[in-house]
Amino acid sequence: MLLVALNLRAVVTSLGALLDEVRDGLGLSGVTAGLVTTLPTIAFAGLGALTPWLVRRVAPARVLVVAMLALAVGQVLRVATDSAAIFVLTSALALSGIAVANILLPMLVKQHFPHRTGLVTGAYTMALTVGTTVAAASAVPIAHAFGSWRAGLGVWAAMAAVAVLPWVPLALRTRAGARRATPTAVATPMRVRPARTRLGWAMAVYFGAQSLSGYAIMGWLAQLFRDAGYQPESAGLLLAGVTALGVPIALLMPTLAGRLGSLRPLVLGLTTASALAYLGLALAPHGAALLWVALLAIGQGAFPMILTAIGLRARTAEGTVALSAFAQSTGYVIAALGPLMVGILYEATGGWTAPIGFLVGALAVQTTAGMAIARPRYVEDE
Fold it and tell me: For residues 302 and 278, what is the distance between their CA atoms, to the nearest angstrom?
């Protein structure tokens, strides 16, 4: 699980750090670049919704093997083309693998570690954050060392290939029992319908709003710092700083969420940090960049919190599958607006005031939904 988690954002943040070079190399317009940075949310929404259907027919370990292979192959193919269209399509292939793994991991945690959900969720979100950080920090240096942005993006295919290896024996062992085991694991989500509950929609909106800001930051923060006067390597390191500082937050947030009777203090604290960061980026992006990076990292703690809340707001593994699939797939539809709107507003205005204003509006929606999920209750009861 930890090896898989290491791969779940590297394909996104490595592109964010090298977005300028990719735009020049492939001749991408600002709108097309916005589409490319929106692809993760589109893929996560579409393929995430299909994952419960897949695991009803194929053992989860086998689904995960195929997903990680798609991630590895997609990353190789996208750096081997000079066509913008093929780059988009192969990026989508890579991201489809991540989409499936996004849904599978909370389910696997609930099944295999039912009494340590917070601890294991914290561990894999920390691994996810580490992978995100390393990719953001090293993509530009790797590209410069090899003289091409293609190396800075393609190198992460090897990490995805390594993550496949431990799952192959598990996939082979579960082949014979897949049809017997899988119906039990996934039949109940057909009866638990989060789309018919207020809690399910509140979870989806919160997940979507925090993902909207998260993917906008991953896709465009390095460009913002470049425009503020930082060199490409420094801008990539500042982007990496958001995720690096998020490592301890990712580990601690699930524990805090599990111990608190209400999530309200966390929701309000995360909102405050994000709001201050956006204000700082709008007014003084260069002068206090490290402070804004630190505040963004705290604000992005909303991601491990909502992943933990998925387990906390369901009584069973089956309910967790249903809630995870609905919250993530619906949430990523909402999140798709983030990088795309930031790209459109950035190209239309030539600055960052309008894009940041858009993110502040999304933060207000996130906070409202967060207050709705703060009170302890279960999706099965609704």
Answer: 15
Distance CA 273, CA 296 (A): 7
Whether the per-residue pLDDT at 44 is higher than 90: the answer is: no
Position of tokens 């959900």?
117
Higher pLDDT, 174 or 190: 174
The count of C-alpha atoms lying within 13 angstroms of the C-alpha of 233, restricted to the half-sphere facing its C-beta, is: 5
Lowest-confidence region among 113-117, 131-135, 305-309: 113-117
| Torsions phi, psi for 349 (to 5 deg) | -105, -20
Short-list 204, 212, 217, 195, CA closest to 331: 204
Put simply, whether the predicted model's pTM sits higher than 0.90 gets the answer no
d(CA 362, CA 240): 23
- How far apart are alpha carbons 373 and 382 in whole angstroms? 13
Q: Which residue has the tokens 């039912």?
A: 114
| Mean pLDDT, residues 205-225 taken together | 89
Ordered alpha helix ranges (H), the chain? 2-6, 10-17, 19-26, 30-57, 60-78, 84-112, 117-146, 149-154, 156-164, 167-173, 178-186, 198-227, 232-259, 264-283, 289-299, 302-312, 317-335, 337-349, 353-373
> Would you give the distance in Å from CA 106 to the centre of its chain?
13
Mark out the alpha helices in 156-231 (DSSP H runs). Answer: 156-164, 167-173, 178-186, 198-227
